[in-house]
Design goal:
- The structure is a single chain.
- By secondary structure, the protein is mainly α.
- The protein has one domain.
- It has 8 helices and 6 strands.
- The chain has a two-stranded antiparallel sheet. A two-stranded parallel sheet has the order 3-6. The chain has a two-stranded antiparallel ribbon with strand order 4-5.
- Helix 7 packs across helix 8.
- It is globular.
- Bound molecules: 2-acetamido-2-deoxy-beta-D-glucopyranose (2 copies).
- The site of one 2-acetamido-2-deoxy-beta-D-glucopyranose (NAG) has 6 residues, from loops.
Length: about 250
């Protein structure tokens, strides 16, 4: 049942917000974006490959997408991680995990935006990535090499896969991305925004999680959808209700 595990207080606010005439934002929950390889609807995928297995219970990616994205120069995007020599495996696993989240997660609805791109109709913008997930990505990649800060544009594609344009020299990640935020936010044109919240807080999206405890991002999407929902309530009643619920929760627990 969809409501299982939801705090009664959040439920109460949700209900109150609905009573106040807010639009039901269930269209933000359990959805797949309209992009190059996503399924139209999320569903179980028992055989998801390797690092994408956390999404087996409910995924927007197919088995073949999950297999392909683990390959160098995968056919999904012909994107070459090793454009400045070999990317360290410790670094590459973060890029694979990032791609698993992008292709497989059914919990990115609150951050989906329409775009006019030839290869996709929708993208994600400012997904609040848990700060530790960004930090470890940056730390594990410091010593690998790249030639650009935004990997979504400006490559030389004449050979079929991305090559560094002549003017952009290969240097360490650290010199192109001086901070974790420079990496996680800059890399894919602000698909991510580094959250001030930590893994396990229920307030940021985790790239890495243990599926034995369920998918923590489901609750995060619900919380943000609710916040967007309450913003739609007239006369600022929604934010008031949400704040009230959070205060109550702190008060009751503390
Ligand atoms: C996409 O392009 C169409 C027509 O060219 C335009 O009407 C629409 O506003 C554009 N959408 C975005 C998100 O830029
Ligand atoms: C792009 O790469 C090709 C070889 O693959 C090269 O001939 C060409 O000069 C490059 N263009 C730029 C702008 O770097």
């Amino acid at each position: 049942m969809a409501w299982k595990g939801t705090s009664p207080l959040l439920l109460l606010v949700w209900f109150a917000a609905s009573m106040c005439g807010a639009r039901d934002r269930t269209d933000l929950l359990n959805v797949c974006m309209d992009a190059k390889h996503h399924k139209t609807k999320p569903g179980p995928e028992d055989k998801l490959h390797d690092q994408c297995t956390p999404w087996r219970e409910n995924a927007c990616c197919s088995v073949s997408t999950s297999q392909e994205l683990h390959k160098d120069n995968s056919l999904l995007y012909n994107f070459n991680w090793d454009h400045c020599g070999k990317m360290e495996p410790a670094c590459k696993r973060h890029f694979i995990q990032d791609t698993c989240l992008y292709e497989c997660s059914p919990n990115l609805g609150p951050w989906i935006q329409q775009v006019n791109q030839s290869w996709r109709k929708e993208r994600i913008l400012n997904v609040p990535l848990c700060k530790e997930d960004c930090q470890s990505w940056w730390e594990d990649c410091r010593t690998s090499y790249t030639c650009k800060t935004n990997w979504q544009k400006g490559w030389n594609w004449t050979s079929g896969s991305n090559k560094c344009p002549a003017k952009d020299v290969c240097r360490t990640f650290e010199s192109y991305f001086p901070t974790p935020a420079a990496l996680c936010e800059g890399l894919w044109s602000h698909s991510y925004k580094v959250s001030q919240y930590s893994r396990g807080s229920g307030r940021c999206i985790q790239m890495w999680f243990d599926p034995a405890q369920g998918n923590p991002n489901k609750e995060v999407a619900r919380l943000y959808a609710l916040a967007m929902n309450s913003r739609a309530v007239p006369h600022g009643v929604g934010p008031l209700l949400l704040s009230l619920a959070l205060i109550l929760q702190v008060w009751l627990l503390g």
